[in-house]
């Protein structure tokens, strides 16, 4: 490391003091006259600072450096020059400590933060207003041009910073300093290229090379839709910060729970725009974390229709994004579903649209058989295994059910088929619906749920015959809907009979209105009808008869904006 000549240090320190904020015409001329030689000295200073191992070493070796750089940063004629501004920022960055070890380094970090805010601020007293006051320049124009120059220079520097040897000053400190400089700028559109470059910067050591303040500011700005960055930059943010990823998932979940009247077409748009499905398809660990958040939500409110719909839509969007990838880029599906029973993956992750409709019943029998085997195995082993092993068995059943929620389109297909099948064929379909709506006992027996489902199905077959629906059959259905045990299950069946039965639409509408009003189920019905419409639209299976029936029912029970669900 070559020492700086003392006479040069003395000369330029005297100049920095004399120039001040360039308030007089003579000082402005002198600053302009010495600009080229000043930049040469700054380059020497930068070369001297870069090999130093710490801020403390730099301050001891060059005690003048803080005051010198600070004075130049307050001189608007120096910072207005793009090259001198770049050199100043690089020198200041060398004084920043990603992990300050003493009071000197902590004070230096605070000073650097204030200095960078001063350089980029439009407030009175900043370098922007100093330039206006003494030269007549327009602040906004200067601010915009200076910011663009600074972003371009820093973006270039970020891309050039190399991975250093362990004996040298860690390059993460330089990246860390730039990320701190970006914190006040994250919502400014012109700063987006620099933010993207920082996020996409590969990790070069065990240090955290992006400041926590930067990560927090970027995450918050994106969630509030005040930041637009490239898709891969946002995914890099989630790879850098688990908390940012969890915040994004929770934000999506909260938006669904707070606006439960949203139709599923809107939900699918929100899920797609969240970028979580695309990120999950590219990064398996992101998919696993997203699903952990969904698991916890489902455990807390397992009967909430909105949460189930979100999980189903997210999984569908994820599979669509994964299909769009090149085959060689895809991990096997079992890597994304490590906790689910592996024999269920193929039948459940195959969409109904990929199976001929005449083969649906056979496909569903296959699915039901696998679920029954899992439940039978659980019941048999719970009698044999030690008490401490029982929770593990219950978790296995939960994971099977969670996969069914993710692939809820097959539950919808089973409900549709129940409108037309006979008693013998209905048993496995009713089992699947019962398990979907009541995966745990919750204080009551699963056998009781199966009896309720069968009873409801029998009443609905009479309620929706070929032509008319006798009013005397409404009472049993109302009683079943009023039951706290099976509300969603009965409503699921009721609406599928209303859509797919041969009963006239006028009689169907009359029955539905009366039943829903008396049972107080109008809100849930709107959500379920939207869910049915969403599935049928995706499968491109709305025929000339079904579509107007569904639309008529939606119109008859109220607008979607009034629909919430629990």
Describe the structure in your own words.
With 566 residues, the protein is mostly helical. The chain is built from 31 helices and no strands. The protein is elongated.
Q: How do the helices and strands line up, and which of them pair or pack?
A:
Layout (H helix, E strand, L loop, with lengths): L5 H14 L5 H9 L1 H15 L5 H7 L3 H9 L2 H4 L2 H13 L8 H18 L6 H9 L3 H22 L10 H12 L9 H9 L11 H12 L7 H10 L1 H17 L5 H10 L2 H7 L1 H17 L4 H19 L9 H4 L5 H8 L10 H25 L5 H17 L2 H9 L5 H15 L8 H18 L10 H9 L4 H14 L4 H15 L2 H18 L6 H12 L9
- The number of distinct helices, counting runs of at least 4 residues, comes to 31
Amino-to-carboxy terminus distance:
69 Å
**SS elements, strand count:** 0
Report the C-alpha radius of gyration, rounded. Answer: 33 Å
| Category by helix and strand content | mainly alpha
Helix content: over 70%
Categorize the overall geometry: elongated
Strand content: under 5%
**Average of per-residue pLDDT values:** 80
Uncertain segments are 122-139, 164-169, 560-566
How does the major sheet shape up?
none
């Amino acid at each position: 490391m070559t020492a700086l000549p003392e006479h040069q240090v003395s000369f330029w320190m005297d100049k920095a003091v004399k120039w001040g904020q360039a308030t007089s015409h003579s000082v402005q001329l002198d600053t302009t006259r010495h600009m080229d030689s000043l930049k040469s000295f700054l380059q020497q200073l930068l070369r001297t600072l870069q090999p130093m191992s710490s801020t403390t070493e730099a301050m001891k070796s060059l005690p003048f450096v803080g005051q010198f750089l600070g004075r130049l940063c307050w001189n608007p004629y120096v910072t207005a020059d793009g090259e001198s501004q770049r050199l100043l920022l690089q020198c200041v960055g060398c004084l920043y400590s990603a992990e300050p070890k003493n009071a000197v380094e902590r004070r230096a970090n605070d000073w650097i933060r204030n200095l960078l805010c001063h350089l980029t601020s439009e407030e009175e007293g900043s370098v922007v207003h100093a330039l206006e006051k003494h030269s007549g320049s327009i602040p906004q124009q200067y601010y915009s041009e200076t910011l663009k120059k600074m972003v371009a220079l820093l973006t270039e520097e970020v891309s050039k910073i190399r991975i250093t040897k362990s004996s040298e000053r860690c390059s993460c400190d330089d990246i860390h300093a730039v990320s701190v400089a970006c914190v006040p700028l994250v919502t400014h559109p012109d700063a987006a290229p620099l933010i993207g470059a920082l996020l996409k910067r590969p990790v070069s050591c065990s240090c955290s090379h992006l400041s926590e303040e930067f990560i927090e500011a970027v995450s918050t700005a994106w969630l509030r839709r005040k930041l637009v960055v490239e898709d891969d930059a946002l995914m890099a943010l989630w790879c850098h910060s688990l908390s940012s990823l969890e915040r994004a998932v929770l934000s999506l979940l909260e938006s669904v729970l707070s606006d439960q009247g949203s139709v599923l077409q809107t939900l699918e748009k929100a899920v797609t725009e969240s970028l979580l499905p695309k990120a999950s398809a590219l990064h398996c660990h992101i998919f696993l974390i997203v699903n952990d958040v969904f698991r916890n939500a489902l455990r807390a409110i397992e009967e909430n229709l909105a949460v189930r719909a979100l999980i189903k839509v997210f999984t569908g969007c994820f599979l669509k994004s994964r299909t769009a990838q090149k085959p060689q880029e895809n991990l096997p599906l079992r890597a994304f579903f490590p906790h689910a029973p592996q024999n269920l993956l193929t039948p459940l992750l195959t969409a109904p649209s990929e199976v001929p409709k005449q083969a649906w019943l056979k496909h569903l029998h296959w699915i039901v058989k696998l679920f029954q085997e899992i439940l039978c195995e659980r019941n048999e082993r719970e009698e044999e295994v030690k008490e401490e092993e029982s929770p593990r068995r219950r978790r296995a059943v939960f994971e099977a059910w969670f996969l069914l929620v993710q692939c809820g389109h097959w539950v919808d297909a089973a409900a549709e088929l129940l409108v037309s099948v006979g008693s013998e064929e209905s048993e496995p379909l009713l089992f699947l619906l019962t398990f979907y709506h009541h995966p745990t006992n919750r204080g009551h027996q699963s056998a009781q749920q199966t009896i309720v489902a069968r009873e409801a199905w029998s009443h609905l077959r009479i309620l929706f015959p070929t032509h008319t629906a006798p009013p005397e059959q409404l009472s049993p259905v109302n009683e079943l809907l009023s039951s706290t045990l099976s509300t969603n299950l009965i409503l699921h069946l009721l609406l599928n009979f209303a859509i797919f039965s041969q009963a006239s639409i006028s009689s169907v509408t009359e029955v539905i209105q009366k039943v829903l009003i008396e049972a107080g189920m109008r809100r849930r019905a709107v959500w379920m009808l939207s869910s049915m419409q969403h599935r049928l639209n995706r499968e491109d299976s709305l025929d000339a008869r079904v579509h107007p029936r569904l639309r008529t029912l939606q119109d008859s029970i109220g607008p979607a904006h009034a629909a919430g669900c629990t």
